[in-house]
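job 3f2a | input accepted
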Amino acid sequence: MQPDPSWQGPIAFHELLFGTWLSYITLIVLWEKALAAPLDEWKYALLTCLGASFFIINHYFFYAPFYLWVVNGYTLIFAGVWYWLGMRQDGRALIWKCVALALVVLYSVLYVGFELLAR
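job 3f2a | predicted structure (119 res):
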């Protein structure tokens, strides 16, 4: 079943393709260089796929009346997975955890920025 065509947003598929590989590299740099906490490769892949799946919301539901509920709910899920995959490390200081949580916002902003570069 196709969502209502009037809900479709301006985000095109080629923007997703362009932004994904750059965001993958950014994700590795954030965890390995900025946080000094390398993750397993599958965790990078999972976070990249979850970040890329925002495309579905922004492409098919951008003008839907419930868009803010969907995108905010998905953002909470993404932040929860970010925490679950990388931040549950024992012995990390509170400041490290705050920085790691702030980097989820930076990652999201950069991902959107990379997609916009494709325009």
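job 3f2a | The mean pLDDT is 89.
job 3f2a | closed
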